[in-house]
Amino acid sequence: MRKEEISFEYEIYGGVDELSASDAALLQEAKAITATAYAPYSGFLVGAVARMKNGSTVSGTNQENAAYPVGICAERVLMSVAAVLYPNEPIDTLAITYHNSKGTSNSPVSPCGMCRQALKEFEERTAQPIRLILSGESGSVFIISKSTQLLPFSFGSEDMNK
């Protein structure tokens, strides 16, 4: 028997004011787009904005439904829009933030497991890592160099072709 460890590095910024101008602008867009999220049940409004490799931006918000499994997260809405508007175009950077109307919004939010899997597939499909900027309305900001770092031991197309 042997033990191994999986770890990754990420950057922590004290707030949006410490980010580069382009990262701060992307995060501000994500904060603004949370206003269009549809989350009447949870009150947890998530906004995501991506800068595509070609320089254009795409956004998405979470869309809830009274039949909970029917809802969809902001990240997967965004990836769907990106895939339709810009087929095979890689996402360079994706900013994700939220407004919790039933609590605080002062720490970074991270994609759920389903979104992590979808991000992995998008990275695979476009052959480019997706850089993540994770934030709340205030507080620290995390930057992760590629989304697949959030899903070690992931399942993908390579597993299906063994």
Describe what you observe in this structure.
This protein has one domain (11-151): 3-Layer(aba) Sandwich (Cytidine Deaminase, domain 2). It contains four helices and six strands, in the order βαββαβαββα. It has helices at residues 21-33, 74-85, 113-126, 157-160, and strands spanning 11-13, 44-52, 57-61, 91-100, 131-134, 141-144. Strands 1-6-5-4-2-3 form a six-stranded mixed beta sheet, with helices on both faces. The longest helix has 14 residues, at 113-126. The radius of gyration is 16 Å and the shape is globular. The protein starts with 10 loop residues before the first strand and ends with a helix. The mean pLDDT is 95.
SSE topology:
Blueprint: E1 11-13, H1 21-33, E2 44-52, E3 57-61, H2 74-85, E4 91-100, H3 113-126, E5 131-134, E6 141-144, H4 157-160
Parallel strand pairs: 4-5
Antiparallel strand pairs: 1-6, 2-3, 2-4, 5-6
